[in-house]
Amino acid sequence: MPESSNIEIAHKLAEHRDSESPKESWQDLVIEILEAVLLGVVAVATAWSAYNAAKWDGHEAELYGRASTLRIEADELVTAGGQQRLLDVSTFNTWIQARNEGRDELAALYVRRFSNEFKVAFDAWLKTNPFSNPTAPPGPSFMPEYRNPQILQGAVVNHEASRIFDEGTAARKQSEE
User: Fold this and answer.
1) Domain span including residue 107
2) How many domains in the chain?
3) Which one of 90, 159, 164, 171 is CB 3.0 to 4.6 Å from 67, fit for a cystine?
């Protein structure tokens, strides 16, 4: 119940009291007691409503905070995954160059420096005969076998952040109600 309603009720009751005759009967006494009880109920209902709104506001803030923390974690994972992917692609490009120059030892060194996930995709890419097959993917990072665990984990964490954020929005609506 809005606080302004409490004030209006109190004013109405005070007006009623002021307009009464100076003589009080037992009915007037009963009415005063009922007025006091009614005001008490209104005060308790207002306090209860405020308490619940504050509780839901706190829950909303907690959920939004958790969602923000998860978004940061997801961004860190995706960034690290992107950096790993960039390192793999850069190392792959230097492998191509060493291979084309006939520097087999150097090319083998670059292959050893691939991440495990990229190495799986690289081996699958080589099986497509990429140097003679015009329909072969342009590189291992385009192979379905290539999975970057940090980027994948970042997507999972980001999805969880979205779910928790939606819970926070629901808590805000509950608080407003």
Assistant:
1) 3-176
2) 1
3) 164
Residues of the chain whose pLDDT is less than 50? none
User: Quick one: pLDDT at residue 22?
Assistant: 56
pLDDT for residue 19: 54
**Closest Cα partner for 92 from 102, 80, 107?**
107
Q: Please report the pLDDT score of residue 17 as a whole number.
A: 55
Can you state the angle between helices 149-176 and 26-100, rounded to 10 degrees?
A: 170
Share of the chain above pLDDT 70, in %: 84
